[in-house]
Structure formats: C-alpha cells, structure tokens
C-alpha cells in the first residue's frame, strides 16, 4: 500500500470527497481493485490487536482517535508515511497535554499495540471508501474480480459490512455466489455472516415469491383440511381480523381448527411463542431465521406440504443457518419437517385462541369447548402462552377458572406455564 498513487494512498478525511469526485472509468476501476489487492496482501495475523485489550485500553484508544486523530492525519496523510514511530510520537505529544491524564503504563506497555490498532482503524476506513466507490459504479466492468476482492475483505474483517453491501449490489451470479460462500465460511465473523445471510434472503426473495405463486399439485399436505382453507397469511402471523363477525360459522371454523390441530400428547419440542422478545443482550433463536424463509415460500397454510418444507429446509441449509439438516433423506431431516409442521399448526391454533380471548365479547358460544381445548394445548406444549391467555381473558367463566387452577397446580408442567396460569 505504501506504493499506491493518489488518491488510493490518501489516509485523510478528504479521501471520501476526492473519491466521490473520481470518474467511474475502466482505468479507475482497475486501480481501485489493485489498491484493494495491496491492502489484502498482508500475511495472516499481521492485522489486529495481539492479545486482549481491557475496557480501559479501548477507552483510551477512543480518546486518542477523537483528540489526536486529526494530528496523525496531518503528520502522516498518506500510506507511505504512516509508521509506528510516527504514531508513537503523536501519541506521546498528545499524552503530555491530555486531560484527564493518560496513564504512563498505557504508553510504555501498549505503544506497539496502539500503533497496530491505529493502522487497522485507518485501513478499515480506507477500505470502506474504496468499496463504496466500487459500489457506486453504474456499470461495473470486471464483476468477477470485484466480487472476489469484496469476498476477501469480508473474510478478513476489512470493512466487512460495506463489502457485503457491494456483493449484494453485484447480484447474481458473482455477488450471490460469493455471499453463499461467506455464510458458510468458518473464519467469517458472526456479525458479517448474519449480514451476508440477510442480504442473500433479500436477493433471493423474488424466487421465493415466484414459488409461492405455484399451485399445489401432487404434493403431500402436512396440515389438516380445516387448516388448509385458512384465508389469513403467515406474513401477518395467521392473525384473525379483530372485527371478524361473531357468527356460528366463524365459531364452528375456529372449533374445527382447534380440533384438527389438537395435540394427542406432549410434543418433543414445545411450540415457541411466535412473538419472541428476548432481552437486549440475548441472542435471538435460530428458528426465527428459518421462519423468515419458510413464510416467504409458504405464505398460506395450504402451501405447507412435505415437498415445500423440504425445499425450505434445503434453502436454509444453503444459507448456512445453523442446525439445519444437510441431507434431505436423513432421519434428522424427517424430524425437522415434523417439528416445523407441528409448530406451524401450533401458531395457527394460537391465533384462534387470541381471537377467542381478546375479540369475542360473548362467552356463551365458546363455552366449554374453547376452555377444554385451551387446557389441552397448554398441557402439551402447543400454543401454551396464547391458550393460557385466553383462559385468563375468560376468568369470569367457571370453566376457565377451574382450568387455570389445574394448570397452576400441575408440577409436571413448565414453570413459566404454571406461573402464567397462577397470576392474579
């Protein structure tokens, strides 16, 4: 990189503006790709802070960037002039006047690490601007080389977010193929892999939509006939309209769905609440990513067939979603399909309970069958949250109160179900 010409060796804040004004010619594209190649030429392990920095070290480094970053750019404005000794000199000059004072141990023990971290920070900002210049090209010439270098940037943690954005903009085949490799690459950071998967799903969604438009012909349905007729989409969570008329026909349909989806015993994997809300630092469960793909491929209950669930499973495996079976003919794949068929049916039944509890005004047409089904579902781990919530909505009805008392007193049920039923 020290041999790069202007504007590719610029490490100042003016670089972004200068690149924005640079024409998108074939020669400039070639120069940009040569510059990225140079940036990626460092041997493995040459970048990054060695060892582990504590919070105090990172806080001091952030202060350095904010208070002395402009001075470093003035003294060393280009790649050929950026040196460890130069950063150290600026660092010591800043530390002499810094308020609050900078600990002496940080300067003595960490000067090499500080210089390395500064070089990484400068390189990351530089790569962001070069990748963004390539991204803004109206007509890329060498899409294959652009994709290859963007993929290497993402693999090496060099402005990974912008690298993935560039691959997304390139689209099929080069950008898409690179993203498909990134989501399954072991060395890629979890954040970069997640963003690459997000962009892949967005890129491939038109294909999902096209598949969803194809009629079901000769396929094996996995949901009951009553559920297959459901007019509400998975995209809306299978929710029933709040203002749906309380007619005999609608009550009969609600009862038919609950009866057809009713579990005969405890399910191996309890159906998760579709409205998952984790804590701020809690990692979201993998099934949320799987559901996003599935509901695009099967937006209506009538489309939930063995064939389409298998296609969805294979698509999720291709996207590198963890825990998805790779072999569609394996026992693991069969368990996956059965589990998801159970979960989808459970989510559909859960919305029936929500409608019966929150939006039905008269308990007479739904007593006692709705309460009986709610207790059965809650006991077997299917739509338990919505079932118990419906019972609580109708706690003025003796059958609901009795069901809640039995659930709350049953030590064999999960604590969260018992606690919900016993809330006053």
Describe this structure in words.
- The chain is about 60% helix and about 0% strand.
- By secondary structure, the chain is mainly alpha-helical.
- Helix 15 packs parallel to helix 17.
Structure described in brief:
The protein has 424 residues and is mainly alpha-helical. Helix content is 61%, strand content 0%.
Number of H/I helices: 18
Biggest pleated-sheet summary: none
- Report low-confidence residues grouped into runs of 5 or more: none
Percentage of residues in strands: under 5%
Radius of gyration: 29 Å
What structural category characterises the helix and strand content?
mainly alpha
Taken in chain order, the helices and strands follow as: HHHHHHHHHHHHHHHHHH
Overall pLDDT, averaged? 93
Envelope shape: elongated
């Amino acid at each position: 990189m020290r041999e790069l010409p202007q504007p590719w060796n610029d490490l100042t804040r003016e670089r972004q503006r200068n690149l924005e004004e640079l024409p998108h010619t074939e020669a400039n594209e070639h120069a940009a790709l040569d510059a990225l190649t140079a940036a990626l030429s460092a041997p493995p392990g040459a970048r990054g802070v060695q060892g582990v920095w504590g919070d105090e070290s990172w806080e001091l480094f952030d202060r350095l960037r904010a208070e002395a970053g402009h001075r470093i750019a003035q003294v060393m404005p280009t790649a050929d002039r950026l040196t460890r000794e130069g950063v150290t000199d600026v660092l010591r000059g800043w530390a002499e006047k810094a308020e609050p004072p900078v600990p002496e141990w940080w300067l003595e023990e960490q000067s090499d690490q500080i210089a390395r971290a500064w070089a990484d920070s400068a390189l990351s900002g530089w790569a962001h601007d070069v990748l963004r210049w390539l991204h803004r090209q109206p007509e890329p010439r060498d899409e294959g080389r652009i994709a290859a270098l963007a993929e290497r940037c993402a693999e090496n943690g060099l402005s990974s977010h912008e690298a993935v954005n560039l691959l997304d903009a390139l689209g099929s085949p080069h950008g898409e193929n690179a993203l498909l490799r990134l989501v399954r690459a072991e060395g890629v950071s979890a954040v970069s892999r997640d963003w690459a998967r997000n962009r892949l799903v967005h890129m491939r969604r038109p294909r999902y939509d096209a598949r969803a438009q194809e009629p079901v012909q000769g396929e094996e349905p996995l949901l009951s006939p009553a559920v297959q007729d459901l007019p509400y989409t998975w995209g809306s969570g299978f929710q029933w309209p709040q203002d749906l008329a309380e007619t005999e026909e609608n009550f009969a349909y609600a009862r038919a769905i609950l009866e057809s989806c009713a579990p005969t015993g405890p399910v191996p994997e309890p159906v998760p609440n579709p409205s998952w809300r984790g804590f701020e630092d809690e990692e979201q469960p993998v099934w949320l990513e799987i559901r996003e793909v599935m509901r695009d491929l099967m937006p209506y209950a009538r489309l939930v067939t063995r064939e389409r669930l298998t296609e969805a499973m294979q698509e999720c495996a291709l996207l590198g979603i963890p825990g998805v079976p790779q072999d569609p003919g394996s026992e693991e794949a069969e368990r996956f399909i059965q589990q998801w068929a159970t979960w989808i049916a459970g989510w559909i039944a859960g919305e029936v309970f929500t409608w019966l509890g929150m939006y039905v005004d008269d308990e007479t047409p739904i007593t006692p069958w709705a309460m009986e089904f709610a207790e059965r579902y809650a006991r077997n781990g299917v739509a338990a949250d919505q079932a118990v919530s419906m019972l609580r909505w109708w706690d003025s009805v003796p059958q609901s109160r009795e069901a809640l008392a039995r659930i709350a007193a049953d030590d064999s049920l999960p604590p969260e179900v018992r606690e919900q039923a016993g809330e006053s």
